[in-house]
Request: fold
Amino acid sequence: MRPARPDLAPRPGLSRDEMESLQRRVAETAVFEDDLPFDPARVSLDTPETENRTLTEATALGGDADGDSPPLVAGIDQSFLDDRALSAVVVLRGGEVVERVHAVSDLDLPYIPGLLSFREGGPILDALAELDCDPDLLVFDGSGRIHFRQAGLATHLGVVCDAPSIGVAKSLLCGTPDEDVDGRPEGWRTPIRADDSVDAVGGHPADPETTIGYAFQSRQYDSRPIVNPLYVSPGHRLSAATTVDLVSRLSGSYKLPEPTRLADAYADEAKAQYE
DNA sequence: GCGACAG
DNA sequence: ATCTTGTCGC
Reply:
């Protein structure tokens, strides 16, 4: 898939101030409301035998989520080799993997909280460029709107690709949960509201009333090692409520949503060929 | 100055 | 993210 807004793509060599101002431009461009080319209810991990093979092949490379075939959902994750990143993308349609690609790219920056997209964004775009199909939804490993300037990795790349995107993080970058998140039952969720560290930008407020994401308990085994919740947030073209709903629909038997879990495994698997 | 921070 | 042994449980 090709970047719709290459002008907003993360570029190496920018100063910290330039990176932050680019993030504000990204946030202003971002849409935190549902603007989808498909019905969220059609996203699932099911593989109904009623799936039409011919139609499946016909839309495999097109990307449109029309007809009976479920939307194409891409999971994206990375593994690292010295100063290089291996970005992996696994695309699912329902419960089936329809495409897997990866790219190895040089890293320009170290990890800096708040500037993750400038370290991993370029490498991820390299992998997405290898894709033959055109995903309807992008699921990133990291935050979207839950970010100091409301422009985390998922928002930045979602805007650059102008595709609906979701951010799934394993820990909270900023914002405040409405309730305590410890030891909650499977399926539980609570809003993450903007706090003092979140800036208002574009038409997006940042007062304590603004829900920038959700803490979501995707899995909880029979007690024991209490599983921490996931922190999900809209990347682009999605509301916070629909974002949790989609992550819930994409959750299988593990803590991470299936697209992310598969991309995570593929990133490690492919890594072996380079070390 | 203090605190806090996705992967 | 990555470095890593053993250990508990289905």
Remarks:
- Residues 6-274 of chain A form a domain with the archaeoglobus fulgidus dsm 4304 fold fold (CATH 3.30.2170.10).
